[in-house]
Write a structure and sequence with these properties.
Strand content: 15-25%
Number of strands: 11
Number of helices: 10
Helix content: 40-55%
Order of helices and strands: HHHEEEEEEHEEHHHEHHEEH
Oligomer: single chain
Shape: globular
Structural class: alpha+beta
Length: 235
């Protein structure tokens, strides 16, 4: 997708947090947005680097993680557009907490650090919206920790697929159906072997919850994934 300032607002409106923001904050974020193109395999940010602003992924996907044992990359999660991040450093002014690497070409908008600080100084009431974004992500993080410690391996795989599918709680499920997460990446996120993940995906496929494609997974029935994941039925 070619990203420009004509369609950015339309893309951002697909994110539930941005939808909930006051119109004035929405306008300010778009007004100060800078488009940043990221090449396949390139890093938008590295752990320990100084914060450079607030970001929203508007096209493509990013792998969020850091260094694992023996220098091997550890993947914590995959984010896909549209997804806001980088707000935590606004509160503590600390360095970036994780790596963010593009897999395939990706596009983000960046609200430079000084610009977002200026917006918040001018309108202190907008701090509540930044806090809400952080709180929502904290809830998701605690849920992810809980999910990783409970249930069968099949349950955990179903939950993780559903989380990526729903944009970790920030995107309506009717926006998309195809995940580009690979079996190897799911294995790294869940601490399982690739062979085990392949077998579990086969079980989900037999239940018509997903369909495997080369390099991706198609979600056929989000409600069924939710049931398998022990999260109850969905409308």
């Amino acid at each position: 997708m070619r990203i420009n300032f004509v369609n950015i607002r339309q893309i951002l409106q697909q994110n539930s947090w941005f939808q909930s923001c006051p119109p004035g904050l929405q306008d300010s974020l778009i007004e100060h947005a800078q488009i940043v193109e990221i090449a396949d395999g390139a890093y938008l940010a590295r752990r320990g680097e100084p914060a450079t602003g607030l970001f929203c992924l508007v096209d493509g996907r990013l792998l969020i993680g850091g260094g694992g044992e023996g220098g091997k990359e550890a993947i914590l999660t995959i984010i896909e557009a549209p997804y806001w991040f980088g707000e935590m450093e606004l509160f503590d002014e600390g360095p970036r907490s994780h790596d963010a690497r593009a897999e395939g070409a990706a596009t983000v908008i960046q609200i430079p650090q000084e610009a977002i600080k200026s917006i918040l100084e001018r309108e202190p009431r907008y701090w509540r919206d930044m806090g809400l974004l952080t709180a929502l992500k904290t809830r998701v993080a605690f849920k992810a920790i809980e999910d990783s410690k409970t249930g069968s391996s099949l349950t955990r795989v179903a939950r993780r697929i559903l989380a990526i599918f729903e944009g970790h709680g920030f995107r309506p499920t009717d926006q998309r159906a195809l995940l580009t997460a690979s079996q190897e990446q799911l294995a790294l996120m869940l601490g399982l072997s690739r062979q085990t993940v392949n077998q579990l995906l086969g079980k989900l496929e037999k239940q018509d919850a997903i369909r495997r494609h080369y390099g991706g997974i198609e979600v056929l029935d989000a409600a069924k994934l939710s049931e398998i994941g022990g999260q109850g039925s969905r409308p």
